[in-house]
Amino acid sequence: xxxxxxxxxxxxxxxxxxxxxxxxxxxxxxxxxxxxxxxxxxxxxxxxxxxxxxxxxxxxxxxxxxxxxxxxxxxxxxxxxxxxxxxxxxxxxxxxxxxxxxxxxxxxxxxxxxx
Length: 115
Prior knowledge:
The chain is mostly helical and 115 residues long.
């Protein structure tokens, strides 16, 4: 009986660990395949540092290549993607709170893929 319980607990723990990234394999695969793009994709936009269209385009390209956002972050993905799509360096405003929260959640998820 104890052996069966141990095997069940071990299987449950393995499934839980794999769900962290295994369930988001397209996202984690993209993060791990392009470390440079993924490292900057979910960082803050800083005028003067990356206020040109290219870094915005690079972020959108990376997100388009991922195709499948993490299931539990689909809303955050949409919020951040919409913000980037409407980005205009002339009228730039700091990230609204919902964009900040979305970007931070996506950044944290990308970091978990690397662990």
